[in-house]
């Protein structure tokens, strides 16, 4: 179902682009045309863009769609001491300034969106990583991170020589525990004897774990010194430290969100076994496509293995030998033969 | 004539500060490649809308409470960085207990307030006791206790213990407090728009400000605190028991800090979750210093701080990035404190000259 | 180093009181305990090396705070100065090598220190607000600079710099050959001791060596030179110093410049040795921890070092192997129980209850849960620091006639 929508997107975008090119100068689009998107905005949570991962990827998707529509894309970022009111006010300001497709990244926006969406019924909203907002003009975008994590967990389980693998999470919050749960299940499925060491770098509301490479590195060195030979780093910016530790001690690490093999320096990337891909660009791009199209289907939109929302990376070719097995697991998950847990 | 000049100088401080801050702001905005005057005009136009002013006032309430909590400690040179842990722990406990009981409205709200204050009081008292009994400096103990509070909340705020996680949500929250434990917001007549209501907790904040002033200026404890702040040795000679006073002050600071999270808890979210605001301690400390520990000064500081943060959202839209806003905030604060200090010095010099002239003139007549 | 803080030996003969004896006793006890509890990594080569890397930036910030506060100025801006050090260290480092990074990071920290001096000394702005504001300024400024200097560079982004080269590492010759077999042989206690020596003396970054050397240098300059004497005099009695033609503002500028430079160096350490890139938010409050160590350390470089080590060691422990934090818990419980028993023999029943009940509860709880929840592990370094301070303060407290030991810095 989602794949179908994905395929439809370029068509819709092209259509809208043509329309907007023709209609330039006229203030009222023809009533028969789709509800146009004039300005797009992304509101990030505290970490914001430049994380080399999730936020950047979400931005890329929105940017692609915005460029196709030839409209402006604006970014704003939250602060640590923001209340729901602050977030609502931020969205309100955007909505009242002519932004008619607004993407809020992060579950902290849930309460604010619920409120503001009702005040601006003509504006289309999307919230990423939350499925609790119900309104006729809101998309709830969820990613099945546990499914992707299962696959890289299986890869780790198949590749480990010490039957001990590690998981390093940035901050102990449910969102990241989904990664942990999927990873652990994947490891167990592929290698029932394997043990998983788990650690988180910080506890909420201390979000320093997302941007503290020194702690990431030392946590990884600690695991490598104690029998772990593959570490899944679901640690945002701290992941750079984990990969560095892998390169320094000649072990494997696993990237997250983006295909980190392509981001890291040459000497480091050859130690990145694979990466758990969270294609947030697909979510943002599809949302904008619908907001600018004829049909807007509010509600929960889940992006998982089935529709390319998550996956694993093959760059470097280090998992080529087990690719068939991993794809087998993926097929089982899509078909429902394997149900991946979401909590550890 | 001199008096007129002195009065002029009192006014000059904020004017100079504001002018300087404005000049620096314009330069930075120009460096950020936007039209400074237009952007600043937009920000002011947005910030001065009645509906935004209401939002600013709401934002200022927790800042004010944090500021008063900090100010209480400042009198004894106790730098309470622990406001952060105290209010989060207080709000968390209040949320849990508030959701667990069912009481008539006024009692319910009162219970939540008392729990939050008691927890803040107790958590600050740990730092106070460590200071008084073991000589552990409050800066260290409160930094460390903040981390401990975070860990404790993280452990308790789990679906396995005192919290719950809604299906499809990545947030973990306590149960929602029933409506009898809510504080209603007050709609301001004539102000239209979404969110145009003042958080009812503003009255508690005002009461705290008045209470703070009364205790400080009309009670024995307040007198002792002020005496101690002016000269510790003299106060001790006068028989003031310093340790008792320090413990009392620290605990009082913590009790007020316990209130910081309540405007949000009682007036808006009605539950404590991962999205609860954190990191208000430093704002509180800054606001207290800006306001010179005076209840009205702190109110002004809190409002100004909130105003800058609110109006700055427009800068974000105008293409001025968040980091520039942070730079602006820092420079504005510095400009204000530097201007205050310079004007104070000029006044002191003038007064000295005035006294010298008066004394000189008098001696000339008599001899 | 944890052994140095174990209380309860006050009335023993003097020779046993020696810090060396106490370190050895504490080390032996902890080593045996970790063996008994089968907790890995309490004293391992990698763990000790990690301790050094965690300690160094905190120690630098602590020394920075020491310089500033000895001159009479509180430096809450250390975090901001460290941030400046990370950014400029990475910016110069990735383009022109580590030497340039070192110079740029230290220079940036120094510049921030001098701005603090300008505000706090010349303009007389409240020292706390000047520091707090500089922290704010550093965050904003580095983000702004990143958007100009890193965003468009390959491998960089608005929050991240490209990879920064590392300092070379050195090893004391012969240590590896002599001790590695002992470490590997897993001899109780001795194996752990060998691991500690190996961790301290092999594969150590040149920058770490420099940081360690800065401790005696700080002591020597502040306590053995005319400059140091004047800085401390200015910090104790500025009026008196002024009357002797020692201009306080000059020495406070110097001290704050050094203070900022040390914090900047801590920043350089974070982007080169502790990791190999600049990442926004990387300092993660280390400046404030450093500020705490100077109070912990009673404004004395040696004790500041001990304070940094306590934090660094516990941080390394909880970061590397969460399970081993349980050993610390048991150790704390046992020390508390020992104190309670001693108090009991001395007839101090209140003391027995005061120490005995929490210690017993702690041990009983550990017996039941067997693993410390990771939420609690996260604050192990903070709690340990607090406990060490609460216990150790008693010993450090001078006789009552000396007067108040908490002169300076009470306001921050």
Keywords:
heterotrimer, A: 344 residues, alpha/beta, Rossmann fold, 2 domains, six-stranded parallel beta sheet, six-stranded mixed beta sheet, 11 helices, 20% strand, globular, disordered N terminus, C: 412 residues, mainly alpha, ABC transporter involved in vitamin B12 uptake, BtuC, 18 helices, 2 strands, 1% strand, disordered C terminus
What does this structure look like?
The complex is a heterotrimer of chains A (344), B (367) and C (412). With 344 residues, chain A is α/β, with parallel strands linked by helices. Chain A has 2 domains: 166 residues, Rossmann fold (3-Layer(aba) Sandwich); 156 residues, Response regulator (Rossmann fold, 3-Layer(aba) Sandwich), CATH 3.40.50.2300. Chain A contains 11 helices and 12 strands. The N terminus of chain A is likely disordered. In chain B, strands 1-2 form a two-stranded antiparallel ribbon. By secondary structure, chain B is an all-alpha fold. The radius of gyration of chain B is 23 Å and the shape is globular. Chain B contains 14 helices and 2 strands. In chain B, α4 runs antiparallel to α5. Chain B has 2 domains: 79 residues; 250 residues, ABC transporter involved in vitamin B12 uptake, BtuC (Orthogonal Bundle). Chain C is mostly helical. Helix content of chain C is 72%, strand content 1%. Chain C has 18 helices and 2 strands. In chain C, strands 1-2 form a two-stranded antiparallel sheet. Chain C is globular, with a radius of gyration of 23 Å. The N terminus and C terminus of chain C are likely disordered. At the A-B interface, β2, α3 and α4 of A face α3, α6, α11 and α13 of B.
Short structural summary:
Chain B is an all-alpha fold and 367 residues long.
Write the layout of secondary structure elements.
The complex is a heterotrimer of chains A (344), B (367) and C (412).
Chain A: H1 2-22, E1 39-44, H2 54-69, E2 72-77, H3 84-96, E3 101-105, H4 110-119, E4 124-128, E5 138-143, H5 145-159, E6 164-171, H6 174-190, E7 195-202, H7 213-225, E8 230-234, H8 239-249, E9 252-257, H9 266-269, E10 272-278, H10 280-291, E11 299-303, E12 310-312, H11 323-335
Parallel strand pairs in A: 1-2, 1-3, 3-4, 4-5, 5-11, 6-7, 6-8, 8-9, 9-10
Antiparallel strand pairs in A: 10-12
Chain B: H1 2-31, H2 36-47, H3 50-74, H4 83-100, H5 105-134, H6 138-156, E1 186-187, E2 197-198, H7 202-218, H8 220-230, H9 232-237, H10 242-257, H11 262-269, H12 281-290, H13 295-317, H14 322-366
Antiparallel strand pairs in B: 1-2
Helix pairs in contact in B: 1-2, 1-14, 2-13, 3-7, 3-10, 3-12, 3-13, 4-5, 4-6, 4-10, 5-6, 5-10, 7-8, 12-13
Chain C: H1 14-17, H2 19-36, H3 45-70, H4 78-96, H5 98-122, H6 127-149, E1 169-170, H7 175-185, H8 190-201, E2 204-205, H9 206-224, H10 226-236, H11 238-243, H12 248-274, H13 286-296, H14 301-320, H15 325-345, H16 349-369, H17 374-377, H18 380-396
Antiparallel strand pairs in C: 1-2
Helix pairs in contact in C: 3-8, 3-9, 3-12, 3-13, 3-14, 4-5, 4-6, 4-12, 4-13, 5-6, 5-12, 7-8, 9-10, 10-12, 13-14, 14-18, 15-16
